[in-house]
Amino acid sequence: GYVGLTLATVLADAGNTVIGVEKRRDVVDLTNQGIPHFSEVGLADALTRVTTSGRLVAAQDFAQDVSCDVYIITVGTPLSTDGAVRLDMIEAATRQVAENMHDGALVILRSTVKVETTKKVVAPILAATGKRFDIAMCPERTLEGRALQELRELPQIIGADDPAASDRAAAVFQRLTSSIVKVSTTEAAEIVKLVDNTFRDVQFAFANEVARLCEAFGVNAHEVISSGKLGYARTNVALPGLVGGPCLEKDPHILLQSAAARGISLEITAAGRLVNERQPIETVGFITGEIARRQLPSPLRLRVLGMAFKGIPATDDLRGSMSIKVLDALKKAHPDAQVGIYDPVIDPDVLAKNFPDEEIFNRFGDAVSGASVAIIANNHPALGAISPRTMSEFIAPNGFVFDYWNHFSHLPATELGDSYFAVGHTEPAAR
């Protein structure tokens, strides 16, 4: 996966011999050819280098005669359909490690997990083998689009109950970076990761609250937030927008479930998720109202531009993308509309595979041309390259643009016209 391949590549580039274990045959084959199965800055060159040298080899399972000094578990921890944290992949990976490891191996858990997973899930499976082992929790905290750079620069959290295990885990990551932060328990390390991402989620939720307030008073939230923090370091409110992705969509829920296991309710965390999760429905409600106000004719041609969960740094990752939530809400509100999508990074064939019912566009201009509503759903710079005034010449008569990321709110009213709206900016610049 994303976490495993980027870490394996950087570890191999640092001189280690690395085996990447992956169930998907196609991913194994691509990796051994030096071809990443996702977009990440610098990864293609680095992966080619380490696979060509033989320092990184991918396989679907361990060979019978192979054992390792260090095992790093990086599997995903998605939420189940009922919202509970899934442990099945953690358990399966741990059993695979337990079967292969020799006495004295070091096992590092890097996945984002519910508090006490290291101690109560991973460690017992390993202990049942009767083999000696050291265990540590070293959470992944890299930013997609900057993973290779940040693996060499970010402080690495090392959590272990035993000082010897802590030293061994620290030695692994000191091959990558000199910035090591040791915490006293595996639980502390687990909580560090959850707190980091939940803090960001709550910050963005407050920005979206500000946007709702400004919309109610006909005020531009971008102006309020940008002006309020200019030269005033004590206030650094984020700008509003869609909040999702593989981490922010689920990590606050993992934190909430961890707290609930001890009878604690985290009200601010829960409120932040509520604000961010309801935003697609709320904003599609505004879009639907504006369609009615403008009396746009059927069939509506709705275009969602930017399907990856973010655009800065650029990624092709659809996991946890709120653009998908927006798309679903649009289709429910306008079941007879002609819906098309575009993304500046994701391959059109991948979009077609994931969204078989939608029209796929290869170019931004083609997607916007003739659209009743052009919805900018992520913050990739390419989606802000053409001003709303220019776009209005290509979209359908009386059509409009709705921008979740305020690409253009800094422009004067003359460049915005009466056909541009954004989160926290639902009053047109001119009628």
Q: Say what oligomer this is.
A: single chain
What is the CATH C level class of the largest domain, in words? Answer: Alpha Beta
Number of strands: 13
Biggest sheet overview: 6 strands, parallel
> What percent of residues adopt helix (DSSP H or I)?
40-55%
Sheet with the most strands: spatial strand order: 10-9-8-11-12-13
Low-confidence stretches: none
What is the CA-based Rg, rounded?
A: 24 Å
Under CATH, the topology of the largest domain can be stated as Rossmann fold
Beta-strand content:
5-15%
H/E topology pattern: HEHHEEHEHEHEHEHHHHHEHEHEHEHEHE
What is the end-to-end distance? 49 Å
Number of helical segments? Answer: 17
- Tally of individual domains: 2
Instruction: Label the CATH architecture of the largest domain.
Output: 3-Layer(aba) Sandwich
* Shape assignment: globular
pLDDT average, as an integer? 95
Estimated structural class: alpha/beta
Structure description:
This protein is α/β, with parallel strands linked by helices. The chain has 2 domains: 2-184, NAD(P)-binding Rossmann-like Domain (Rossmann fold), CATH 3.40.50.720; 201-422, Rossmann fold. Helices cover 43% and strands 12% of the residues. The strands form 4 sheets. It has a 6-stranded parallel β-sheet with strand order 10-9-8-11-12-13. Helix 1 (2-13) crosses helix 6 and helix 12 (267-294) packs across helix 13. The longest helix is centred in the middle third of the chain and has 31 residues, at 186-216.
